[in-house]
Amino acid sequence: MMNERVAKLRRQSVEAKPSISSERAELMTAFYQGDAPLRESVPVCRAMAFKHLMEHKTICINDGEMIVGEKGTAPKATPTYPELCCHSMNDLEILNDREKTPFAAGDEVRRVYQEKIIPFWSGKTMREKIFRAMDEAWLNAYEAGMFTEFMEQRSPGHTVLDNKIYRKGMLDFKQDIQQSLDRLDFLNDSQALAKQEELKAMLICADAIIRFAERHAQKATELAERESNPQRKAELERIAEVCSHIPAHAPRDFWEALQYYWFVHLGVTTEMNPWDAFCPGRLDQHLYSFYKQGVEAGTLTRGQAQELLQCFWVKFNNQPAPPKVGVTAAESGTYTDFAQINNGGLKEDGADGVNEVTYLILDVIEEMRLVQPSSSIQVSKKNPDRFIKRAARIIRTGFGQPSIFNTDLIVQELIRMGKSVADARNGGSSGCVEVGAFGKEAYILTGYFNLPKVLELTLNNGVDPRTGKRIGLETGDPEQFGSFEQLFEAYRRQLNHLIDVKMRGNNIIERLYATYMPAPFLSILIDDCIARGQDYHDGGPRYNTNYIQGVGLGTITDALTAIKHHVFDRKTLSMRELLAALRANFEGHEPLRQTLWQRTPKYGNDDDYADDVMRAVFEAYFQAVDGRPNTKGGRYRINLLPTTVHVYFGSVIGATPDGRKAGLPLSEGISPVQGADRQGPTAVLKSASKMDHGRTGGTLLNMKFNPQVLKGEDGLDNLKDLIRSYFRLDGHHIQFNVVDAETLRKAQARPEEYQNLIVRVAGYSDYFVDLGKDLQNEIIARTEQKAF
Amino acid sequence: MAVAEVMAEVRKDVIFYDQSRGGATFSGGEPLMQPEFLLALLEACRAEDIRTAVDTTCYAAPQVIQRVAQAADLFLCDIKHMNPGRHQEYTGVDNNRILDNIAYLARADGQVIIRVPIIPGFNDDRANIEGTARFVQALKTVRRIDILPYNPGGLEKAIRLTGKVDLMQAQAPGDDTMNEIADVFRGHGFEVKIGG
What we know:
heterodimer, A: alpha/beta, six-stranded mixed beta sheet, B: 196 residues, alpha/beta, TIM Barrel, 6 strands, 48% helix, 16% strand
């Protein structure tokens, strides 16, 4: 049930227009114009800057709220991070004017940017440092669309919190930090000074977040004094009490637990702009003891807990993802950041983790129907069917949430990557589908990698046909390849070369962040940064993983399969003829294109001919990346997910041998090429499960169902069985769009009538009408499953 | 296609049969039109412990029905209309043979689920629904009736294929109609699924 308060808060959140708030940029600029940067070490300076923000940013308590605190000055007023990347005047103009996902940037914001922010930060941002440090090979490959680089826009922050804040207050963390400081050995440890500076920085940050909460307590007290409604007055007094207790001390009840997390969330996302938003992770596990204790003591009802959670949900929705810099008018954005609340799964001892709070949260997800926060269910073989079916009831209402993960496999994946059993069971999925040991790991998504583009280079002997520039190796004239194996070997060499280019860049960027942009507040929260005296960005966490996300698996598989089938096995097509057709974008070659598209084995149909090629590509990508060292004592791993980049990656590739025309989107995630899977959903799952998901850090499978198929109790049972079967086959993740193509086409034509239509894009849900036209078309083109 | 080829396809989904307690359904067209091939497949499935269902109009020779009855685990049998005349008029064949075959299957080892396509104006009247219910009740062994809402989507294709433009023009039944009919069957003690 959504009561009047929640309905109002939700409406305000949904209707609030996103805007740029220059407050953070101004405070940061003012701070860095002072003498601290010259006087203090980098970590201490960063901590002081954080404290400056926490002491001076506007405190906002919205009417009716129970959980308080905003990143900006008001709901959806979005801060910027000029020390990472600085918006230009042109950026602000485009963001303000663009038709889809605009951010209002008013005259005052623009004036401040023009007069203060841009002049100060120009040349000093991380983005500029990064581009200055990259070599020609990297820059060429980057410009060609071979890969993307996350850290040119945001900081490497991919992590999720564990249960530590529900047990310890910031004063407790300060004690831990002090102990680490006391243990420093300046006689024998050459890093002792660096550790001291980092630990001092953490102490400053702990004080800063306490101060931030106290300012909310003061504000709530002031509002309470002026409040005439006795009920609201009591609530404001309670808010003041909560904010004076946490985060200094450990939370005592359900309300305090949620509010503590929210301050931490604001702290982490104000300190920096970490990718794939930070989130509480296994929220049902964290809250269960507070819930049980409150209900047993008679101080909390299910309804009250639900209302608090609903208020908590609104807070996430109030924070649009900060907009990018260097935007173009054509490019579409998203307001969605990637907080993914995990539900269910396993407890640390390996027992079924589904509890009453799990079902409570699922109720909240269904009722709130917000794109943020995103949500998932973690499904173990130990979890009951009714849990999956409860989630399936939400899924079939067609808003793409929750997504569904195979917990038993995630635990295996994490253990393979070196985590302890307990850390693995306390972990989960975050962002889109990426796995990590919550509270103990920096797992950095470093960028997407364009797998089909590697083939295009291979077929052009290392040259990008779009620009004529040499991007890859000279792997030989493709017309001289005598066998598919020779072609594949050339593909593998190109792949290894380009991964090397990407990794060289990554390793430099990683050092730039470690050197210039430590995150001492986040470091308090991630084990073992305090014990090691090292920053989150510099190997402080217990585990340090770098992911490179492969994109276009379906397209590359079908493209290679087409060459294998027609050129080498059947010999009905010469390489010369194929290359000519690709160069011509199939103009004048339509019969050949039809043959390639219609009369070729395709991934997604449980056909080993194509699926074996997929496995070969998977293996080549895995070998190129997995296990290689990063600069923080951790290793590189792969995952396979696209967010929206399959549209961009497709736009930089000409026609491909699977019959795809130039510029069209690639397949997304590990899903088959749109429309290529023709044997129903079970065949898709069989094909997808032929790769070894257990050796990845996440794969993303999207499936679109006609709503008719999921009707009734049978529909739910069938969906549940489909999920269970995929997970028995060790699939990592699956998510569903339950909407028919007709509805999507109508929404595209008449967006004003479909403002509330939410669809699953890749690892997140978004308003369909907010998506760019290419992405809309791609979603429409996905195969619609009409039966099980 | 050979039996081995079909079995290769059938085997691909074993994991799904196991999870959902399902199996392979042989449908059509009309699978009983190719009885020898069907029997070979049913036997091959049984040899591999794969449950089978046959989705049929039951318009077949009694000898065929008798043989298939022993070989399959489940029959999905259509009853389109209880009135022989109406049945003849709309399907081109008499329903006596169909009803006899269903009665035979209901007495034999296999399990039977009756499927009634609900076509407004053709068979959705109370008399026909009651008649259907009474007939199935008399079989004694059938517990479940699935009612399937008519989908007019195939009409255009049928017109194209037959060249006849005066084919039955029916609308899809509304949810209310489907629920009312389901309640009639439930009133006779059947488990009813809409959509099947």
